[in-house]
Amino acid sequence: MNKNIKPLYRLLALAIGSMVFAIFAPTVVQAADPPTLQSLDSTTKQLQISIDTTWVLLTGFLVFFMQTGFSMLEAGLLRQRGVVNALLENFVDAAVTILVWWGIGFGIAFGTSAGGFIGTDTFFLSQLPIDGAFPSGGVPGIASNLNAYTLFFFQFAFAATASTITTGAMAGRTDFVGDLIYSAIMGAFSYPLIVHWVWNANGWLAKMSFHDFAGSAVVHSVGGWTAIVGAYLLGPRPGRTPWGTLPPAHNLGLATLGTMILWFGWYGFNPGSTLGTGNPGLIGLVTLNTTLGAGAGALAGMLFQYFRSGKWDLVYCLNGSLAGLVGITAGCAFVAPWAAILIGLTGGVLVVLGIDLIEAMHIDDPVSAFAVHGINGMMGTLAVGLFGQAELTLNKKAGLFLGGGFDLLGVQILGVVAIAAFTVAFAFLMFGGLKAIGRLRVDSEADKIGIDAYEHGATVWPDVYAVEEFVEEQQNLSKNPRINALEGE
What we know:
single chain; Ammonium transporter fold; 2 domains
């Protein structure tokens, strides 16, 4: 009986539901506001902001991943006795930078400008609403509708790069506490000041239409100049090979891996600096120019060194690619692809000559940081003034070689000189102060036993032996036999 009744109840419930829907559905539909041009425009804008936010975050992740590339590159090019120290410094630099960038650096860089030289607010992100958006969107110094926290993270990833460049040139003999101090100072003061001048909409160089799309001058020349001053004041590593002959790399496999990661990360560095996907053509141009610059630089560095030494040198090929990437970073959005190739070729040659110059000056730069980042950061910035396309530049002025006269080049020269002068002066004060308090160079005992053993009590290869050590251990084992793991099981 019950089995026959249940289907009837279900049919009755379905019929009642259908009647209710038929009666009230038209009312509900009529109550809904029909779409308007204004509502559609608002929805489109929100969708674009969401897409742009995703784009900037993903490219920011790529830039942060470059910390891994720097770590592997330095670990590969250094001697074994200093690899643990370099890995820890690269890792902890990011940790230090995020805190000082949050507290001070971001405000100095992108806060409300005082005369175009320094930001005066947004410290500790204290003036941001909880959702991170100003009424007009973004932050005071950046023309963007993106959430302020998204912009903060993207710019932090750049800030971490500047101090990491410096770490490479000073590797193998820097006091670890000193490294923590100068990384904090760079992230809080010296780097953000240059950012304010160039990338803050109210910065004095920005108002003059100084062109540095993604940081050849702001990031790389700042890191390069700071690095060479630090390396000069530190003095050479113990047991350095004769000047003019680079010390052998500890692991070329790691160096190659690190360089390939950096090249990959550059697709966040340059394309991500568009801060949005609204202009797909620009993103494509930036990506293409970045790749052409890297490829041309790698070939130029390798070939130029081959003509000098008769050997196909991996290290010079790697450095050539990085030089091309650094060089094209300023102008990747402002030059045509053929100019990107010229910039890359120039970078590949300059990095070889730059290494020779630093060696001739008896300055120990283990990873050729100044030759790669300092020299080519300036070259790439000046190249905008030579090859800039009027259709692409911010002020619609062409470079010197394209009939634009000296207007654009003059501003580029002024910016390069001003950034170099300030950075060198600041670096001498910073490192000079550390030297005065005994926190620049590690204790002399570290020169005897190795900085890894002295500072960290560790080695990157704890189970790898020199032949003599292995023979000695085997002799000691034969005199004092021990039960090995298999015999004890």
